[in-house]
Amino acid sequence: MVARARGETVIQCLSLFLVIHFLVASANFFKPFNVTYDHRALIIDGHRRMLISGGIHYPRATPEMWPDLISKSKEGGVDVIQTYVFWNGHEPIRGQYFFEGRYDIVKFVKLVGANGLYLHLRIGPYVCAEWNFGGFPVWLRDIPGIVFRTDNAPFKEEMQRFVKRIVDLMREEMLFSWQGGPIIMLQIENEYGDIEHSFGPGGKEYVKWAARMALGLRAGVPWVMCRQTDAPENIIDACNAYYCDGFKPNSQKKPMLWTEDWDGWFATWGGSLPHRPVEDLAFAVARFFERGGSFQNYYMYFGGTNFGRTAGGPFYITSYDYDAPIDEYGLLSEPKWGHLKDLHATIKLCEPALVAADSPQYIKLGSKQEAHVYRIDSHTDGLNSTWHESQSGCSAFLANIDECKAATLRFLGQSYTLPPWSVSILPDCRNAVFNTAKVTAQTSIKSVELDLSYLSNVSSLQQFMAQNEGSNMQTSWVTIKEPISVWSENNFTVEGILEHLNVTKDQSDYLWYFTRIYVSDEDIAFWEENKVRPAVTIDSIRDVFRVFINGQLAGSVIGRWDKVMQPVQFQKGYNDLVLLSQTVGLQNYGAFLEREGAGFKGQTKLTGFKDGDIDLSNLLWTYQVGLQGEYLKIYGQGNNEMVEWTDLTHDDIPSTFTWYKTYFDAPAGADPVALDLGSMGKGQAWVNGHHIGRYWTLVAPEDGCQRNCDYRGAYSSGKCTTNCGKPTQTWYHIPRSWLQESHNLLVIFEETGGNPLDISVKLRSAHVICAHVSENHYPPLQKWVRSDFIDGKISVKDMTPEMQLQCQDGHIISSIEFASYGTPQGSCQKFSRGNCHALNSLSVVAKACQGTNKCNVAISNAVFGGDPCRGIVKTLAVEARCVSSTKVGFSQY
Ligand code: GAL
């Protein structure tokens, strides 16, 4: 039975693969169509469209993850995928282009098309995006006379060359809409309006030039500039913000587009984790379409991971989860994904009316309540007595923008109650099928856990845990020290303090500065007598600075152009003085990025000497870029054998500037894999030669997180944060495709001293799912089509709401922990029965759900054997556990 099911799945997967492969290979996804626009919307193949877009940045996932991310986006009701183009990934060396692996943009765009979705390509090529150097290749700053993002010939030449290259590539691959491809829209520059004033008249010229240049490439689809109030005539200016319903484009001929709806936010090392409540996000989206918007993009729909050294700065973490509807690992974030899916389905029901009307009719319903009505027969002015005849051609949004109070509104003869800060959507101007604050989608509680499925009984589990100290690395670790300072012939010596990026060209985070300092008897006597210590004093540093005296770490400072005064202890005679400058992601936002640089700025001195300060810029320094281990690529499959590792013992822990290596087997099944580096300090990690990113267990401040996250009122990134007092990131995604079944090479470079014996490989899954649906909620919207409303086909039976529960792929519901049909209280993992409770609640839900991946339970008395409490609105609340079906399969044998 199990074998048959598996066989079927393999055949299904294979045929799906062949279909997608065929579609991708044939590269003709649509019948060629034109894209234009008017003041109301993008016009696709002659029709105005209301479009939902989802941001996915291709290099923040692996090509193996792309198909699933795209299909989950489609299932969530997304019409368009939006991505930036990452210049520094595509042109790492000037003139040498790279379009493979995670940078195979052509493959990504084709996959989007093969799934029947459109694509918005934001070429930039400045992209911001919390991406290293905002997407600029670091070599760009070395071009003589260059000034980025202004009317500067060397910059414009490079920018044009790259933008043209991308447009040409898309055209050659037949990826524009008029060629039958998915690309419906492009973007030039990115939020330039925010910094334009820094460049004076040059900024204004540059905007005009960028627009002319882009249009001159004859890509045949519209271009946008976001946050660009002076965008020229043929370029659409678009809004980026948490709310864009009040946005007005700079011309009445342009539609209202929202290129970045920030559905969460990014995190910094040592910071807490932002969350945007879905009730507020849905409110913002509904308000946008209510007030005339026509294209809305979630930034991000899937955030993913800043693999390698791609994270930008200052101090952006490796995870780019963003609290997006699809999480960093590719799993659904619920209820965000599901609630937005319901919203999208509702907006689709309204689309005919939304596109028919040139603008909505506004009706004030209260001091903080209003309605916007769209009618297919837009020539009928006002809502006169004939509206009943044409109601099917009518859609309305009712908004209660009061942050505190619910409101009961009368609209077209009917009464509607709206929670605070919410919008109800009426696809037929009568049935409020969706309210942004009423979430019926399930909640999923995810965790990252050890995979111990291969241990069949409790005693071997205990034995295993005792032996392995909580880690599931089964082999031992070996180690090797990284030399402090100069380690090779390829160093050089010059007088003076050189700028960090001028030396490293960002080939590594690390730059070593080495010199010798002579200390006399008189200096030592002076320090003792005056009870003072000498100090390394630097006007300004970023991101991390460390000083070593005679091979010993004497101090570290983290800063963003902050002053350093690090006391040090010298011996008599010659002392080795080593300064280490480290980057943690290059600056990605602001004007004049080419001048930002990294490392040290201003004066660099040794203070506190008897004869006065020593100006370090007058000394001879030997420079060494990077780590020896990086240079030898000891994290790679073959190369790691080139150095002499020694066995790691407890006595070696903790140790700074040390490499560690071990092997591990991939956990069974298909769940996403995470590396738990909570026992480590700061460094970088590689699996089978793939750089999984920087890690750092820097802890977020104790306060600043809210116990309860109230969705009501305007959101800002500090509003609903979690994780205070804990390391910002402890789990690091290892994409499945980077793993083989066994003997996976894990190499860690640790700077500050952690315990590798406690590193473990874990599985991420949603192990608890909950839902809470009432009788007075609407049935699943995906069932409806517009004609049901128009033809009045909706019957009372169809109105029965339903609870839908689903475990992630490959998991089934193993048990129902709580079920109550009646008046249950509380929220997920804290449900309790109320006064009214149907006694068979648990058995009804268990019968429908247990052992399945997905189940639906109708919210009706009939299902629960009668009405448990007449005259009271009943709710069904359920909490279920999900387990991997392969585990269940094993235990059955
Ligand atoms: C925007 C920018 C994006 C991203 C976002 C914050 O201003 O355009 O690229 O940086 O902020 O996540």
From TrEMBL:
Going by the UniProt record, its keywords in alphabetical order are:
Apoplast, Glycoprotein, Glycosidase, Hydrolase, Secreted, Signal
Any one GO CC term of the record: apoplast
Q: What PROSITE patterns has UniProt attached to this entry?
A: GLYCOSYL_HYDROL_F35, SUEL_LECTIN
Question: Its Gene Ontology molecular function terms?
Answer: beta-galactosidase activity; carbohydrate binding
Q: Which reaction does it catalyse?
A: Hydrolysis of terminal non-reducing beta-D-galactose residues in beta-D-galactosides
Q: Name one Pfam family in it.
A: Glyco_hydro_35
SUEL-type lectin domain segment(s): 801-883
Q: Which InterPro entries match?
A: BetaGal_gal-bd (IPR048913), Galactose-bd-like_sf (IPR008979), GH (IPR017853), GHD (IPR041392), Gly_Hdrlase_35_cat (IPR031330), Glyco_hydro_35_CS (IPR019801), Glycoside_Hdrlase_35 (IPR001944), Lectin_gal-bd_dom (IPR000922)
GO annotation, biological process:
carbohydrate metabolic process
Q: What class of enzyme is it?
A: hydrolase
Where is it predominantly found?
secreted
Q: Which domain of life is it from?
A: Eukaryota
Q: Where does it live in the cell?
A: Secreted, Extracellular space, Apoplast
Q: EC number(s)? A: 3.2.1.23
The family classification in the record reads: Belongs to the glycosyl hydrolase 35 family.
Cited PANTHER family? BETA-GALACTOSIDASE RELATED (PTHR23421)
Q: What is this protein called?
A: Beta-galactosidase
Taxonomic lineage: Eukaryota, Viridiplantae, Streptophyta, Embryophyta, Tracheophyta
